[in-house]
C-alpha cells in the first residue's frame, strides 16, 4: 500500500517534470516564433512581388493570412489578382472558409468572414450576405458587413442597409460609415430608403451626408431639421418655451423624459425608460425620441458646415430649439459680410446663444481679419458687463495684435482694450507674452497697464504674482507666489483602524482556536513543550496547504488565461489596419498622463504618446504641482502658450492654475494644477477630455506604438458594454529609448528589477487575464487603463477628498473599477471589463530596496482601503461572481493572506529551532511553495511570450532562473512588506510618497537639450 509520504514524492516529481516541460516549451517556442515571423515575411514579400508584377516562384503552401496582409498594402487590379491566385489554392481556401462561416464558434466565423471578404469571389459574397441576414450577434455581423464592404459589390447594399433595422447603436454607428464607403453606388440606392420613417435609415442618410454632397441630401437634411422644429413648436403648447429650452439638452432630467415620450408618440414609436442606460447599445425603439434629437443636431452641424446659406434665414436664427439656433450662428461664420457679423454680435446678448455667437465671431474673424476692427468697436462701445466679457474672450485670442500697437504713438485704444481685457479676468495671454517678451519698451507699457489694473481690481494680484517670472513680479510691485500650499493634515480613519485591529487579532487566534478544537482531548493533559511542538507541526501543514491552495487558484486562472490569449490572438490577426482605421470603428480616446516631478522622463513619455498608431486621440498631460522643472520642460520643448481654455468641471478637483496649448499641435494639451495626487489629476484630465474614452497612463511610462489600438480593438469583440479595459505592464529598466520610442527591448541588469519582471508577468498573465475570462477583473493598472468617460463621471470620478465621496485612496485604479462594476451590477446592466495580453506599456520600476518597500506598502494600503470601502459587496449574490468569488478571494488571499503567511514563516523557523522540522514537512513545503510557485511563474512567462518577442532566448533563461530562486526567500520577503503595509495602516497616513526616477536609459537629458 502506497503511503502518504510516497504520494507527496510522486506529486513532487510530476510537478518537477511539468516545470521542465514548460521551460523547454518556452525556450523552444521562442525559436519557433522567430521562424514563423521569417516565414510570414517571406510569403508577404513573394506576394508583393507578384502584386507589383515582379517575378516570384509559386509557393505551394502560401497562407491566406499573408495574402490578407499584403492586400492592406497593395490595391490589386484584376490581372494582378489572377497572378497571385496562381500561387494560392483559392478554391481550397474558399471551401474551408465557407464551411467556417457555418461554425457555431464566433471566432471561427469571424475569421471565415474576413478571409471570404479578402477572396472576394461571387460565391463568397452570396454566402456572406446570407450569413448577415441570419446572424444575431452584433460583433459578428460587424465583421461580415466589413467583408461585404471590402468586396464592394453594390448588389449587397439592400442586405447591408436592412441589417441596421432593430440593431444596437454600437452596430449602426460603425456600419453606417461602412455603407457610406459605397459612395455613388449608395447615392443611387437612396430612393429605396429616403422616404422611410425608420430612425435607422434616417441615421444612415445623415451619416452619408457628412461625406457625400448632393442636392438630394441637402433637401433631406433641411426636411429633417424642419420636422424637429415643428415638433418643438408642438411641444411648446404642452410644456411652454422656457420648459422645453431648459431641459432639451439635459439627458437625465424628468422634463426631457416626458418630452422624449411625447416625441415618441409624435413619431409613432413606443417610449421606454430613458434614465441610466448605455444609449448606443439599446435598440432603436427604446430611444427614438433622444435618437431623433441627436440626429437633428448632427444634421444641423452638416448643414452649417457644407450648406451655410440654408441657415441664413430667420426661421432658423430665431428657432425655439437652441441647437438649431447655435448651428445657424456657426453657419453665419462662413459668410464675408458685415451684416452677418452684426447678427452674431446681436446674439451675444442672449445667454442661451452666447457661446454659439462667440464661436461664430471667432471663426469669422479668423477667416476674414478685415472684420476684426468691427469687433473692437463693438467691445469699446459695449456697456453690458457680461457681453463685454464675451467680447474680451474673443479679443484675448488676438492679444498680441494690441500689444504690438503699444509701440506706436496713437496707442490709447490699444491700452484701453488691453486694460479692459485684463480687468475682465483674461490674463493668460498677457502673462504668457510678458514672460517670453524681450522688448523693454513693450514690457514697460504692459507693466504700467497691469499696475493700474491691479489698483482697480486687487483680485488680479494672485494671477500675476503666481505666473509672472520673478523679475517681472518685482517690477509690478508684487511678491512672487510659487504655489498656494494647502497643508491639510492627513487623518487616520479610526473606524477602519478598529476593524483592521480586530482582523489582525482574529488572524492570530484562528489557528490556536482550530488547534484547541482538534486536540481538545489532550489540551490539558499533554505537557506545554509537547503542546508547542504539536502546534508548530500543525501550523507548518496549514501554511503548506494554504500555499498549495493559492497556487492552485493561480494555475486554474492560468488555464483560462491561455484560452483567452488564444482567442485574443486569433481575433487580433483578423483585424487588419484598414478595418481598425475606418471611421468610427474604434472609439476616440483622451490619454491622460498625470505628472509629478517627472522632468527626467516627461519628454520621452510625451513623444511616445504623440506617435501612437491610433485613428483619433488627444494627449492631456496634467502637471500635479511639480516642484521640479516638469512644466517648464514641456513649455520649452513644445513651445506652449498659456490660454483661457473653456471646459465643464463635472468632477470636483483641486484648482487648475493654467492650460497650455500650441495651436500647431492641437493633439496636445498641458494642464497645470495645484498638487492633489494622481487621482485628482486624472479627474482634472477627465473634465478637459473631449473624447469617448479616457486612457490613464503614468507619465513615467511608455506605450508601444500599437498598444492603444490593440487594447481598444477589444471593444469590437463584445456585444455588451466595455466600461473599462486594461493593458499589460512590463518594466522598462534595461530597454533602450530613442526619442520617446523603445529602440530595443531588454532585461534590466538590476537583480531587484528582474525579480519584479517575473512578478509583473505572473500578476498580469495569471491574475488580470484569468479574472477577465470570468468577468471578475477588479484591477486595471494605473500605468495603462482605458475607461469610458461617461461611466467615470456617472460614478463620481476617481476617489479623492475633493470629489463626491470626500475621501482619498492610494489605490485609485482598482477602486474605480470596483465602483464601476458595483454600479453596473446594481443597475443590472450587462458589461465586460477586459484585459489585452498583447497591449504593452513599459514603466520604470524601483531598483533599490527602500523605494520598492514604499511602493509595496502603498499598494497594500490601497487594497485594504478599497476592500473595506466596498465591504458591502462581499458574498452578496446581487453582485454576481464579483461579490461571491472575486471580492472574497482578494479579501482572504490578498488582504489577509500576508497575516497568515508571516505566522507560517515564523512557525517554520520555530520548528527548526525546536528540532522538529522533518523531511515530510520539508518536502510538502517545497512542493507547495517552490515547485508550484515555479510552475505558476514559468507558465505565466510562457503565455506572455506566446507569439511575442519581448525577451531574447538568453533573457528567457535568466528569467526562468529568477522565477526559480525567488521562491527561496524573495517572495517571502515581499510578503513581509505586505504585512508591513497592513501594520502601517495603524500609523498616521503619510500620503503618496512619490518615488524618485532615474529616467529612461539615460536618454532624458539628450532629448530635452
TrEMBL record:
Signal peptide interval: none
Any Pfam family the entry gives: Glycos_transf_2
Keyword match Transferase: yes
The keyword Transmembrane belongs to this UniProt entry's keyword annotation: yes
UniProt keyword terms in alphabetical order: Glycosyltransferase, Membrane, Transferase, Transmembrane, Transmembrane helix
Domain Glycosyltransferase 2-like residues, every copy: 590-715
Chain segments annotated as transmembrane: 6-27, 500-523, 543-565, 906-935, 956-974
Tree of life domain: Bacteria
CDD domains associated with the record: CESA_like
InterPro entries xrefs: ARM-like, ARM-type_fold, Glyco_trans_2-like, Nucleotide-diphossugar_trans, PBS_lyase_HEAT
PANTHER family: POLY-BETA-1,6-N-ACETYL-D-GLUCOSAMINE SYNTHASE (PTHR43630:SF1)
Family statement: Belongs to the glycosyltransferase 2 family.
UniProt-recorded name of the protein: Glycosyltransferase
Organism of origin: Acetobacterium malicum
Amino acid at each position: 500500500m502506497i503511503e502518504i509520504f510516497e504520494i507527496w514524492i510522486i506529486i513532487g516529481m510530476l510537478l518537477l517534470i511539468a516545470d521542465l516541460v514548460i521551460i523547454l516549451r518556452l525556450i523552444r517556442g521562442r525559436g519557433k516564433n522567430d521562424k514563423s515571423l521569417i516565414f510570414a515575411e517571406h510569403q508577404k514579400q513573394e506576394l508583393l512581388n507578384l502584386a507589383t508584377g515582379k517575378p516570384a516562384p509559386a509557393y505551394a503552401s502560401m497562407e491566406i493570412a499573408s495574402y490578407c496582409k499584403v492586400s492592406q498594402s497593395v490595391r490589386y487590379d484584376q490581372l494582378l489578382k489572377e497572378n497571385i491566385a496562381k500561387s494560392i489554392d483559392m478554391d481550397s481556401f474558399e471551401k474551408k472558409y465557407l464551411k467556417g462561416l457555418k461554425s457555431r464558434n464566433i471566432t471561427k466565423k469571424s475569421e471565415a468572414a474576413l478571409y471570404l471578404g479578402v477572396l472576394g469571389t461571387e460565391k463568397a459574397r452570396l454566402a456572406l450576405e446570407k450569413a448577415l441576414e441570419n446572424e444575431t450577434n452584433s460583433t459578428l455581423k460587424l465583421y461580415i458587413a466589413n467583408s461585404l464592404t471590402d468586396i464592394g459589390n453594390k448588389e449587397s447594399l439592400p442586405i447591408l442597409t436592412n441589417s441596421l433595422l432593430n440593431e444596437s447603436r454600437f452596430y449602426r454607428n460603425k456600419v453606417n460609415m461602412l455603407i457610406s464607403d459605397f459612395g455613388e453606388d449608395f447615392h443611387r440606392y437612396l430612393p429605396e430608403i429616403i422616404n422611410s420613417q425608420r430612425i435607422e435609415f434616417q441615421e444612415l442618410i445623415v451619416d452619408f451626408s457628412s461625406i457625400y454632397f448632393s442636392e438630394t441630401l441637402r433637401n433631406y437634411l433641411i426636411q429633417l431639421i424642419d420636422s424637429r422644429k415643428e415638433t418643438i413648436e408642438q411641444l411648446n403648447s404642452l410644456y411652454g418655451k422656457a420648459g422645453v429650452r431648459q431641459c432639451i439638452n439635459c439627458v437625465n432630467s424628468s422634463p426631457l423624459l416626458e418630452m422624449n415620450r411625447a416625441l415618441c408618440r409624435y413619431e409613432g414609436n413606443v417610449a421606454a425608460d430613458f434614465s441610466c442606460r448605455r444609449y448606443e447599445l439599446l435598440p432603436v425603439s427604446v430611444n427614438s425620441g433622444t435618437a431623433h434629437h441627436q440626429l437633428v443636431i448632427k444634421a444641423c452641424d452638416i448643414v452649417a458646415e457644407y450648406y451655410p446659406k440654408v441657415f441664413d434665414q430667420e426661421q432658423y436664427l430665431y428657432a425655439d430649439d437652441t441647437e438649431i439656433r447655435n448651428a445657424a450662428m456657426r453657419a453665419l461664420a462662413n459668410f464675408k459680410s458685415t451684416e452677418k457679423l452684426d447678427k452674431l454680435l446681436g446674439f451675444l446678448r442672449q445667454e442661451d446663444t452666447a457661446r454659439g455667437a462667440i464661436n461664430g465671431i471667432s471663426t469669422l474673424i479668423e477667416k476674414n481679419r478685415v472684420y476684426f476692427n468691427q469687433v473692437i468697436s463693438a467691445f469699446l462701445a459695449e456697456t453690458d458687463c457680461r457681453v463685454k466679457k464675451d467680447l474680451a474672450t474673443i479679443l484675448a485670442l488676438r492679444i498680441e495684435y494690441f500689444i504690438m500697437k503699444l509701440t506706436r504713438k496713437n496707442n490709447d485704444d490699444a491700452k484701453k482694450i488691453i486694460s479692459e481685457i485684463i480687468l475682465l479676468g483674461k490674463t493668460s495671454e498677457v502673462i504668457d507674452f510678458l514672460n517670453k517678451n524681450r522688448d523693454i519698451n513693450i514690457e514697460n507699457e504692459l507693466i504700467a497697464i497691469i499696475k493700474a489694473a491691479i489698483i482697480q481690481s486687487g483680485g488680479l494680484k494672485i494671477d500675476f504674482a503666481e505666473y509672472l517670472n520673478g523679475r517681472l513680479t518685482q517690477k509690478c510691485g508684487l511678491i512672487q507666489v510659487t504655489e498656494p500650499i494647502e497643508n491639510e493634515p492627513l487623518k487616520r480613519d479610526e473606524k477602519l483602524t478598529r476593524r483592521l485591529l480586530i482582523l489582525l487579532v482574529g488572524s492570530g487566534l484562528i489557528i490556536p482556536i482550530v488547534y484547541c478544537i482538534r486536540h481538545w482531548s489532550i489540551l490539558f493533559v499533554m505537557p506545554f513543550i509537547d503542546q508547542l511542538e504539536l502546534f508548530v507541526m500543525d501550523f507548518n501543514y496549514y501554511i503548506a496547504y494554504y500555499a498549495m491552495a493559492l497556487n492552485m487558484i493561480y494555475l486554474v486562472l492560468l488555464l483560462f488565461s491561455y484560452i483567452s490569449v488564444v482567442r485574443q490572438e486569433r481575433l487580433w490577426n483578423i483585424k487588419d489596419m484598414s478595418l481598425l482605421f475606418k471611421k468610427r470603428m474604434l472609439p476616440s480616446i483622451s490619454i491622460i498622463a498625470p505628472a509629478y516631478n517627472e522632468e527626467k522622463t516627461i519628454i520621452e513619455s510625451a513623444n511616445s504618446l504623440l506617435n501612437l498608431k491610433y485613428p483619433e486621440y488627444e494627449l492631456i498631460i496634467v502637471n500635479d504641482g511639480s516642484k521640479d522643472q516638469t512644466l517648464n520642460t514641456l513649455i520649452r520643448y513644445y513651445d506652449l502658450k498659456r490660454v483661457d481654455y473653456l471646459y465643464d468641471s463635472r468632477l470636483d478637483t483641486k484648482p487648475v492654475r493654467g492650460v497650455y496649448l500650441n495651436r500647431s499641435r492641437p493633439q496636445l494639451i498641458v494642464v497645470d494644477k495645484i498638487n492633489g495626487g494622481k487621482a485628482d489629476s486624472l479627474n482634472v484630465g477627465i473634465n478637459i477630455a473631449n473624447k469617448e474614452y479616457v486612457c490613464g497612463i503614468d507619465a513615467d511610462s511608455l506605450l508601444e506604438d500599437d498598444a492603444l489600438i490593440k487594447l481598444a480593438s477589444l471593444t469590437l469583440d463584445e456585444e455588451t458594454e466595455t466600461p473599462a479595459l486594461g493593458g499589460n505592464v512590463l518594466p522598462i529598466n534595461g530597454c533602450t529609448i530613442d526619442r520617446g520610442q523603445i529602440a530595443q527591448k531588454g532585461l534590466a541588469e538590476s537583480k531587484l528589477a528582474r525579480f519584479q519582471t517575473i512578478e509583473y508577468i505572473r500578476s498580469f498573465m495569471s491574475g488580470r487575464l484569468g479574472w477577465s475570462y470570468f468577468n471578475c477583473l477588479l484591477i486595471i493598472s494605473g500605468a495603462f487603463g482605458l475607461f469610458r468617460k461617461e461611466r467615470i463621471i456617472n460614478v463620481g470620478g476617481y476617489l479623492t477628498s475633493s470629489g463626491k465621496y470626500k475621501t482619498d485612496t492610494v489605490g485609485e485604479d482598482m477602486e474605480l473599477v470596483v465602483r464601476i462594476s458595483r454600479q453596473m451590477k446594481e443597475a443590472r446592466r450587462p458589461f465586460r471589463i477586459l484585459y489585452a495580453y498583447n497591449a504593452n506599456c513599459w514603466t520604470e520600476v524601483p531598483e533599490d530596496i527602500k523605494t520598492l518597500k514604499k511602493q509595496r506598502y502603498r499598494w497594500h494600503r490601497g487594497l485594504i482601503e478599497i476592500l473595506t470601502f466596498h465591504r458591502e459587496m462581499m458574498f452578496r449574490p446581487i453582485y454576481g461572481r464579483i461579490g461571491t468569488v472575486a471580492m472574497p478571494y482578494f479579501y482572504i488571499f490578498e488582504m489577509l493572506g500576508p497575516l497568515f503567511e508571516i505566522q507560517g514563516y515564523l512557525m517554520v523557523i520555530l520548528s527548526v529551532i525546536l528540532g522538529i522540522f522533518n523531511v515530510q514537512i520539508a518536502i510538502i513545503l517545497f512542493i507547495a511553495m517552490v515547485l508550484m510557485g515555479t510552475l505558476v511563474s514559468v507558465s505565466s512567462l510562457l503565455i506572455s511570450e506566446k507569439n511575442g518577442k519581448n525577451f531574447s532566448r538568453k533573457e528567457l533563461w535568466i528569467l526562468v532562473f529568477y522565477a526559480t530562486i525567488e521562491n527561496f526567500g524573495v517572495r517571502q520577503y515581499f510578503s513581509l512588506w505586505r504585512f508591513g503595509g497592513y501594520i502601517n495602516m495603524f500609523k498616521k497616513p503619510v500620503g503618496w510618497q512619490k518615488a524618485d526616477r532615474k529616467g529612461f536609459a539615460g536618454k532624458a537629458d539628450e532629448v530635452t537639450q
